[in-house]
Design a protein that fits this description.
- The chain is mostly helical.
- Helices cover 65% and strands 6% of the residues.
- The chain has a three-stranded antiparallel sheet with strand order 1-3-2.
- Helix 1 crosses helix 2 and helix 3 packs across helix 4.
- 15% of the residues are buried.
Length: 110
């Protein structure tokens, strides 16, 4: 899944992430409580501010739960056992999807 977030930001709001992933903010809050790898900062108002690393972790959780059909417990176990390996695979899939979209654009232009 390709997400549309500006790459030069240090922090993303919950609204930014909800829009990019097409989910409700309540899901983000829920997953924040459920998954230890999500560690957003909180500002003075208590609003969550996610780092680019948090966004990658959220993308990994989204991939496992929404795209591959893992249960929350299954996703937690999978993350504990092989987070780095899963993240690498997710990055490869994301890059391949980008390449595929570029190739389709080229094909459509011909």
């Amino acid at each position: 899944m390709n997400i549309n977030l500006p790459e030069n930001k240090r922090y993303y709001t919950m609204g930014d992430i909800a829009t990019a992933f097409g989910v409700n903010q309540s899901l983000i809050r829920f997953w924040d409580k459920e998954f230890d790898i999500l560690k957003p900062k909180k500002n003075a108002k208590g609003n969550r501010l996610f780092t680019p690393e948090d966004v990658k972790n959220f993308q990994l959780i989204y991939h496992l739960v929404k795209e591959r059909g893992f249960t929350l417990e299954g996703a937690k176990i999978h993350l504990k056992e092989g987070q780095k390996k899963s993240l690498d695979k997710l990055e490869i899939i994301s890059k391949l999807e980008t390449i595929k979209a570029q190739l389709q654009n080229i094909k459509n232009e011909l």
